[in-house]
């Protein structure tokens, strides 16, 4: 994926004013919509500036390049997704897992373009975007592990077992938002039950990681 050359417009070191942050957030929101409808390579900086109704130099001012702009959009989406999924830490463990899955589904439902970009890993093979996606997966694994085992630092077998579940959730969620035939509550219950199966499988292979009581009751 080619990287645009930085023009003469320099990005200032300090631009943390409230107005600048709001403007940057607005450009990210616009870019999320643009890249949802058109591939990365098909959009030039001129196209982006024209559709965003801003001068091209303004995008360089905040993001340096088209690639920098694209990555900022992905990273912003990731921050929202992780925040949604990790919410409810004050709840009991079982309730926290339900809250995490429900929040994850709500995010995917209401931010479909961003969710597809995160899960697909970007345009083609992009190591940086894939690294961002992998970071989201690890954050979800940690959140589930904290709810199930009371800690996020878990053994390789338990981590891989939960990661396999997260990857299956991604595929199921992509299908769900493309064909929303199931209510969100039903989808959540289904994913909770499949998580219970994953936790029981982990316990069977490594008894030092016992499935929590709700998983023994199939969620």
Name its key features.
219 residues, mainly alpha, 0% strand, disordered N terminus, single chain
Q: What is the rounded distance between the termini? A: 44 Å
What is the structural class?
mainly alpha
Helix content: over 70%
Strand tally is: 0
Instruction: Spell the H/E element sequence.
Output: HHHHHHHHHH
Radius of gyration: 20 Å
Strand content: under 5%
Overall morphology: elongated
Question: Count of helices?
Answer: 10
Query: Whole-number average pLDDT?
Result: 83
- Please mark out the parts with pLDDT under 50 across 5 or more consecutive residues, or reply none: 1-15
Please give a quick description of this structure:
By secondary structure, the chain is an all-alpha fold. Helices cover 71% and strands 0% of the residues. It is built from ten helices and no strands.
């Amino acid at each position: 994926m080619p990287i645009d050359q930085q023009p003469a417009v320099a990005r200032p070191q300090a631009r943390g004013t409230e107005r600048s942050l709001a403007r940057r957030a607005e450009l990210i929101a616009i870019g999320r919509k643009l890249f949802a409808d058109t591939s990365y390579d098909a959009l030039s900086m001129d196209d982006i500036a024209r559709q965003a109704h801003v001068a091209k130099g303004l995008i360089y001012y905040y993001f340096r390049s088209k690639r920098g702009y694209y990555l900022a959009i992905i990273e912003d989406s990731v921050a929202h997704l992780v925040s949604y999924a990790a919410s409810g830490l004050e709840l009991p463990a079982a309730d926290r897992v339900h809250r995490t899955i429900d929040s994850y589904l709500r995010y995917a439902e209401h931010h479909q373009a961003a969710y597809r970009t995160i899960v697909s890993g970007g345009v083609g093979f992009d190591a940086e975007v894939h690294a961002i996606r992998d970071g989201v997966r690890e954050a979800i694994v940690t959140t589930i592990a904290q709810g199930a085992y009371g800690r996020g630092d878990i053994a390789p077998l338990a981590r891989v077992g939960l990661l396999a579940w997260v990857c299956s959730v991604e595929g199921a969620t992509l299908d769900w938002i493309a064909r929303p035939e199931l209510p969100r509550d039903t989808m959540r219950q289904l994913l909770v039950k499949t998580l219970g199966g994953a936790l029981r499988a982990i316990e069977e292979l490594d008894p030092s990681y016992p499935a929590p009581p709700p998983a023994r009751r199939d969620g």
